[in-house]
Amino acid sequence: MLVVKNILRNWSGGLTGSHDGSRAASAIRIADASKRLELLDDFERAGIGWLWATDAEGRLIYLSENAFDSLERPIEEVIEKPLVGLFETDPDDPSGSPARPLNFQLTAKNKINDLVVRVNASRSRHGGKQLWWTISGHPKFDASGAFQGYRGSAKDVTTEYLRQLEDSRMAEFDSLTGLANRHRMNKRLESILSAYKSSGRACALVMLDLDRFKHVNDTLGHMAGDNLLKQVATRIERVVGARGEVGRLGGDEFQIILPDLDDRGKLGELAGKIIQIVSQPYVIEDKRATIGTSIGVAISPYDGVHKDDLIHNSDLALYAAKNGGRGQFRFYSADLKDEAEERRIIEEDLRLALANDALELHYQPIVRTEDNMVVTFEALMRWTHPERGAIGPNVFIPIAEESDLIIKLGEWALNRACRDAMQWPKSVRVAVNVSAVQFAHNDLVDIVTEALQSSGLDPDRLELELTESVFMGDSETVEETFKVLKSLGIRLALDDFGTGYSSLSYLRSAPFDKLKVDRSFVDSCTLSDQNSDKIIAAIIGLSDALGMEVTVEGVEAFDQLDLVKSKGARLIQGWIYSKALKQEVIVERMQSGEFRIEPDGPDRHRSERRSVYRRIGIIHDDHRYEALLRDLSKTGARIEGLVGVPVGTDLVLDLTGGQLVICTVTRSQDATIGVEFETPLVSDGAGGLCTRHRASSYALAAAGMRIDPGPAGKNGNVVLIHPPTTKPQFMEVAVGKAQHAA
Q: How far apart, in Å, are the Cα atoms of 423 and each of 213, 362, 589, 717?
């Protein structure tokens, strides 16, 4: 170590003067080089810190002996090697303001103050274990100003730094699921939107809210709820993959940031996949829980260029999805209202309607195919709001389930249905839906018993329709409820059968009398590329083997009716026989002996075509025309209001909100044209269709167009900036509802 001692002597200033001879003095004088060297030796041996030095070429020429113990490397593998090969600036510095790279600092001959560096893993013998040091140093110059290298100190801060990293991670990540938390997601979103703004790049924001999660917490406990949230997080991450970042905002709210994605077709597919995967049953402490999720999507720059705007609009889309019946996704559009406020108002009005007996039950027939006789009526709740008009049960039932209203609604429906059924022939049953919240309520058995006794209805004529979600509760309690209900003599039906993922296990112990095939299989049963017909046949065969009845729901056309009958269906429910009827209509028909309903409907089921009545714009050359959209499918449309449009003409349809569709005229007769789209439309998650992409304001401006916000910013019509230079080639004619009512 003689060379090292000489280096330190030179470092201390090159002073070799002797001390003043007073060895009893406590102070170490500046001129006492040997004492100062001894002090430095003591400092290094104490492990308080280490010293280091480089030459003018950046090679390490000195490092305290104890430092080699930390590195677990021999001196010859470190000394005279470049300092930048030993250390690197940590990109994950939790301070939030990472310093310039070490190489830059050394090259610029800057003073270094407590710079956190990571020991290069290849220079360490810790088997991949990371080490962090803080280093300080200053450049040394000789009397002529020539650079001599660096002189500095260092310290191992691995323990402290790892604690900082963990604190930083905890500040940005959810402790339960490990996902990014609200703070991190907000920072990420703000950073992405800021970076993308100038270039007009897109970023989708997806908001998720779990359906029926509160019921899991209430029935299985908070520990089970936490377990469920962790499983949900894992499933969502698996679906999203590397396409974006998933975060948990708190409670049962999740968020996904998807940079560079504005294709609503792909976003709809992703949302549908997430809904499907999240809705699969969960195993929690030997119990099963089934939940769902609703999804709202907003896309920058179309739906907002600032973080708060995009979050607000994706929230509106989420509330719209929940308000539409849950288990759905919805894209943001400018005409969405503040759904949180809407739900509050609907709940208040629903309480008032229940108190004032302003609700109704309508009954849809279930018909026996053998002779077309009605054997059962399913009770369906209807609400006609004095100002809003008809509000569907898919809107108000989910709202009721989040409050105590569902118990009161269920009790009212059971009593009303039993009283109404007493006016029918004894051969006709009544089916009443029971939600999972109702089923888990302690008073269900008492409510059913009271409804039967007060009405005088034979228990065998009452059928309770349940879904798989009733199995979320404690299995022993569920089994006991089943047992007591069956002891009353009533019938039980498993609704929406086939849409879950573990229905067969329920059939082993649950005493169901009937299975109801979900209408989603009927909708696609006549399509050659689907297996729905085979699934329907399998469910019917399974029920026969178990001695259960089967009702096939949602049959609307004769091709569907013929197919399900060929598979063995004996009970049919659907519009081909009848929509839901009022009680007075049913009583009148039965009194005149009309118990039989002959099927009546279209020959073929067409699921894609939608009848609409919607004003749109049509752009051709430098003219914009107004027209009426009448029929719409994914691949084309029927439009009224333009005369003189030749077949083969290329047009651009303005569906508002930047939704421009390039199409070609395939039919033209009088004021009606048929068009075929260049790019098919995609589902908007709400039963409608939308374009995959939207034209941004930048692209429109480049094409001489802009979006006119219209009244209250609701229209979003595309208008031409420049006046037309040619004469219009087509003639607009007025069309309206009155013409089509005749």
A: 40, 14, 12, 55
